[in-house]
């Protein structure tokens, strides 16, 4: 396979009355962790299932390295997926679960131990899955996706239910996969979490693309989401000189002011001209949660 780029073009899925995915197009690059975000019912799982050939698209295409999943010569060695962490046979040990998958995929059984090692589950390899914590099950799901040592990894909500320590672990693991040049696509509805582990995000709502790009760009949005924190002993003089409406200035709990609608240089220039002392002038990074809510508001809803 030339590379592990994922290309989704005009993808649509109509389930009877529900248009779960609606003319969706986006790309996912190798060597990066891409977060696939959307409110509940946005169409994330349906999109991933179409990408993996588990659901037939009504129209449009989804390709991995230029081919549809069903046309890949040896799919399990090219794409690893963890879609449902809950679908384990509870009475099996973690190791047996992976060995069964190896056998089904025609992979050598020792891949199971290697994958367990990779996700830190070796000490629990011989314990039954029913005794695993949620975090351990998530790790096992990731190990399952790694069995064929694939170029492309696709996980549905892998960080769901993990504690902060588990999330940190997940971040390190996913970025190590990306550093090896793999393509990593991970869905989530926990936006603050995606902000921690993704390089790029694809945001959808009601089956449609809302935005795609580096996390960095999204959190540095201009406009409504952009605020500048100002600390000054002479706020009235400064904001008077800037001729800002009252609504553009909000006090924060630490004695500073959050200002919207002007740039940092504009504030600095006005302060200099008015002879006002500035103790702090700091553009704030918008948090992804806020950006996401602004972008998807009114478009979510239960369908
Ligand atoms: N097999 C199906 N038959 C009918 N409707 C379906 C089917 N699968 C999904 N849907 C509908 O398609 C829409 C998108 O569902 P999907 O599970 O893809 O969303 P999601 O973004 O993964 O949501 P969540 O975060 O809640 O898992 C929903 O309205 C859902 O009810």
Could you walk me through the main structural features you see in this protein, from its secondary elements to its overall organization?
- This protein is α/β, with parallel strands linked by helices.
- It folds into 2 domains: 6-219, Rossmann fold (3-Layer(aba) Sandwich), CATH 3.40.50; 227-285, Alpha-Beta Plaits (2-Layer Sandwich).
- 34% of the residues lie in helices and 25% in strands.
- The protein is built from 11 helices and 13 strands.
- The strands form 3 sheets. It has a 6-stranded mixed β-sheet with strand order 5-6-7-3-8-9, sandwiched between helices. It has a 4-stranded antiparallel β-sheet with strand order 11-12-10-13, with helices on one face.
- Strand 1 (6-15) and strand 2 (18-28) form a beta hairpin.
- Helix 3 crosses helix 4 (110-118), helix 4 (110-118) crosses helix 5 and helix 9 (235-242) packs across helix 10.
- It is elongated and about 75 Å long.
- The two termini are 38 Å apart.
- It binds adenosine-5'-triphosphate.
- Adenosine-5'-triphosphate (ATP) binds at residues 15, 18, 20, 38, 40-46, 189, 303.
- Belongs to the ABC transporter superfamily.
- One of its GO terms (molecular function) is ATP hydrolysis activity.
- Keywords: ATP-binding, Nucleotide-binding, Transport.
- This is ABC transporter ATP-binding protein.
- InterPro entries: AAA+_ATPase, ABC_transporter-like_ATP-bd, ABC_transporter-like_CS, P-loop_NTPase.
